[in-house]
Records
---
Amino acid sequence: MAALTAAATVETGETAGGAVSALTGAKTPKGEQTRALILNTALELFRERGYEETTMRAIAQRAGVALGNAYYYFRSKEHLIQAFYALSHEEHLEAARPVLEREKDMKERLKGVIYAKIRTSEPYHRFSGILFKTAADPHSPLSPFSPESSRTRQESTALFAEVLFGSNTKVPADLAEELPNLLWLYQMGIILFWIHDESPGRRRTYTLIDHTVDLVARTIGLASNPLLSPLRRRVLALLKDLRS
C-alpha cells in the first residue's frame, strides 16, 4: 500500500501532500504519516473483522493514536472507505498513464486501463470481498453509485473519456456523451466478477477482459455505421428514459 500517503482529502483540511497546520497553513509530514497509518490500520481491521464489526475506537487503539486524533483525520468509518476509493483510483490512474501515452488503438487503450485496475486492486482482493457485503446495498453511502462516492466516480468516468477520445476511433456525437459512463459501468461489472474470482492469478478475470474488451471495441467502432444509427438512437433513448 505504498500509495497510502497519497490518499485523497476527506474534508479534514488536508491536501494529498499532507496535513495542514491550523496555525501556519503549512503541510506537516507527521500529519501525512499519521493519516496514512490510520487508513492502513483501518483496512487491516476491516479485513480481519469486517466493516460492521470494526469501530473507530479499535482503529485508533491498533494505530496507537488517540481516538480524537483518529476522528480529526476521518470523521467516520464511511470517510475511511471514501479515502480508500480515492486511493484506489489514484493507484489506477498512475498505472494506466503509460498505456494512454503509448497506445492510440481503442482496444489496446481500454484493455490496458482495465488490466491496470485489476492489477492495482489485487492487494485489496480480500478486503474488497468484505466491503462488497456493505457496498452492494443501494442505500449505503459506501455504494459506488452513492452521492458520497460521486467524486471518485466522476474521476473514474473522466479516465474513460480520456480512453475514448484519445484513441483513433471515431465516435458519433450523440453517443460520445454516454460512452464514458457506459465504460465505467463495464469496468464495475469486471470488478464484480474479479471479487468472486478465486482462480489462480485471477485467470478467469483476465480471460473475461480479453474477450469482452474486443467485443466492446468492435461495437464502438461499428457505431458510426449509418445502417446502425436507428439502433443507436433507440439505445440512447432507453438510457435517457432510465434516468428520468
Note: The chain is about 65% helix and 0% strand.
---
Amino acid sequence: MSKEPISVHDKCMAVKTITVDLEAYELLFRRKRPGMSFSQVIKLHLGPRKTARDLLVTARAGPLSPKALDAVEDLIRARKSSPARAPRL
C-alpha cells in the first residue's frame, strides 16, 4: 500500500515572507517539532491565549470522572497544608 506524502501547508494558503535575525530563528527552531511548520510554531506560542471562560466551556462539555474529581480535591487539600504562604505586605 503506497502512502501519499502529507502536505503541511494548505494549497490555498496565502503566504508572506518575513525576515528574522539568527537569534529569533533559533528560538523558533528549538520549539519546532517534527511535522510542524514555522507558522504553526508561531501561532502556538503567540496565538490567542486560553481564558477561564474557555476552561468553563471545556468543563461543561465533558464532565470529569469521579476519580479525576477526587484527585483535584486531594490537590486542593494538599495546598491548604503547604507551609508556603503569600508574604504579608
Note: The two ends are 68 Å apart (CA to CA).
---
Amino acid sequence: MPRCSEATTAGACRAATSLTLVVALLGAGSAVAQTNPPAEETSCFCAPEPPKRSVPDYDGRGPAPMTFDDALPWIPHTLLLPVYVVSEYAIRQPLGATDTYVEENHLPTWFYNLFAFGPDHQFGIYPTFFFDFRVRPSVGLHFFWKNAFAAHNLLTTDVAYGGSNWAKVAIGDRYSFSATESLGLEVKWNRRPDTLYYGVGSQVTNTFISRVGSDVLSGRLTYDKVVDKSVDLEAIAVIQRMVFRDYTCCGDPSLEQRVEAGQLPAPPGYQINTTSLEVGFKAVLDTRLSHPDSHSGLRAAVGVGMAGDVVPGFDTSWARYGASLEGNFDVTGHSRVLSIGVTALFVDPLGHQPVAFTQLVTLGGVEPFAGFYPGFLRDRSALVAEVGWHWPVFAFLEGVAAVSFGNVFDAHLDNFSFELLRMSAVLGVRTAGLIPGGGFEFTVGLGTNTFRDGFGVASVRIAVGVVYGL
C-alpha cells in the first residue's frame, strides 16, 4: 500500500477511506467490486497529525505568575473541603441509601402496623425514649385509643422512667367537635431530680451548674378552635402543685448546696412550695392553614396569661405575655423552606412578691434556643431572632438547620444590649405523625456566651428521642 503523497492531506485521506467504507457497507455489490476495482492510488496510509505548537515565549519572561485573584477561589474550596466531605459521605449518601431502603420496604407503614392494632388501627402502644446530654435519659410507653367512649375522641396514656427519683405519668383525653374545634384535658405527674439551674440573668455561665429536685402534679384544660381557616384560637386553664425535693443527680451539686456554699444567691421562690392556677389565651394567624399544600406564608402569634399561688393569694401572682412573627418562604417550590422570625417573651409580678424562678421566662431545650440545655437562661424577659432552613430528608423526616441570636433580660428588656446577645445553632432531623401526638427528633446544637464575655461555647447539646403529647 503506497503512502500518501505530500500533496495529499490527512483530511483528504480520511475522506477517501470513509468513502470506501461507506461503499462497502452499502453493499455496492461484489460484482461492482470485481468489475471496477478501486484504483490502487486511492488506498493510502495516513500519518497522524502533528501536535499543536505551543505558544512561543516571545518576550522571554516565562509563564505569568499566579496572582491573588487566581488563588482566591481555592481558599473557600480548601476551607469548605471538610464540610463537603462530611455532608457528602457522612450525611447525604447514608441518608440517600436509607431513604431508598425505607421507601422500597415501606418501613413507616410496617412500623405503624407493628404497634397499632384493632379495627382501623384504633389502638396502639409505642415505645418512647429521650436522651439529652445534660439530663437523665428516659424510656417509656405511649398508648393511644381512637374513638374511645365516643366518636372523635382520643385517649392517650404515657409512662416514662429515668432512674432513681425520675418518673412520669400522663393521661390525656381530647374530643373533637369538628375538624376545626376540640376540647382537651391532660393530667400529669412528674418527679425528677435533674432540673438544671445556672442562675438568673443575661450573663450566667455553666460554672455553677446545679440541680433542682421536685414533684409536679398538674392538670390542663385546653379549648382550641380554627376561625376563617387561618386563625387558631386557644384558651387554657392550668392548675399545678409543685413541691421541692432534696434529690441529687448526675454528680452535680444541688441548688441548696450551691446556696449554702455562697456560690449562688437564693433565687426568688427558693424552697417555697406552690399551688398555682393560671388562665391564658393565645391567637395564631397562619396563612398556611388555609393553603395546606403551600409551605410559604406568614405566621403571627400573641399570647397572654395570668397566674397566682392560690394559698397566699393575689400578693403572689404574675402575668406572662409574648408575641412572635415568622415568615416562611419555599425557595425552590419543593419544600425547601427558609424561615425568618423574631420572638419576645415577658413575665411581670402583679402583687408585691417577685416572680418565682420556676415561673420566669426560660430559654433552652426547645426552639428558638434549642442549642442551650433546658433551663440554661432565666429572667423577666427575652428577645430572640432566628433564621432557619427546613428541607425534606425522606419519606417521613424533615431536616432543620437554624441559627438564633438573643438572650434573656431584665424586666421589659430594660438592659438590652447587643453586647449581651448569645448565639444558638442547631442541626438535626425530626418528624411528626409516626405516633399520634408525637414524633422523632435528633438535634445537635451549641450555645455561646455573650459577645461581652468573649462569645465562647457555653453548651454543646445532643438530644435524640421520641416525644409525645396529647
Note: The radius of gyration is 34 Å.
